[in-house]
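Ops channel
N.P.: pipeline sanity check, posting one input/output pair.
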């Protein structure tokens, strides 16, 4: 599902014009990105958490040049779904059907 499809779905379910929904969704994404860039985590009860994960310093290999590369310690954005969200997906018959079709 794309962002445009999400906006359309929200608009249809709430009756709010697409333009207003689009502005709201863009504002949400902007707030999430800016807050995480400032080192703040975001917790949405019943949905999940947007958190910054710390990656340790490590040595990697550049296979084409056969050299070692040092990757410094850094943070990456991560999403951890809530237990309610995880259980809903686990119990979803549509998810099971979609995976059977792909296999």
């Amino acid at each position: 599902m794309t962002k445009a499809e999400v906006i359309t779905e929200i608009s249809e379910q709430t009756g709010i014009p697409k333009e207003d929904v689009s502005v709201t969704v863009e504002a949400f994404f902007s707030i999430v990105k800016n807050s995480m860039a400032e080192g703040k985590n975001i917790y949405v009860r019943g949905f999940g958490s947007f958190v910054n994960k710390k990656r340790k310093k490590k040595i990697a290999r550049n296979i084409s040049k056969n050299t070692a590369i040092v990757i410094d310690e850094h943070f990456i954005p991560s999403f951890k779904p809530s237990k309610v969200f995880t259980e809903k997906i686990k119990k979803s018959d549509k998810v099971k059907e979609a995976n059977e079709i792909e296999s």
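N.P.: looks fine end to end. The first strand starts at residue 42 and ends at 44.
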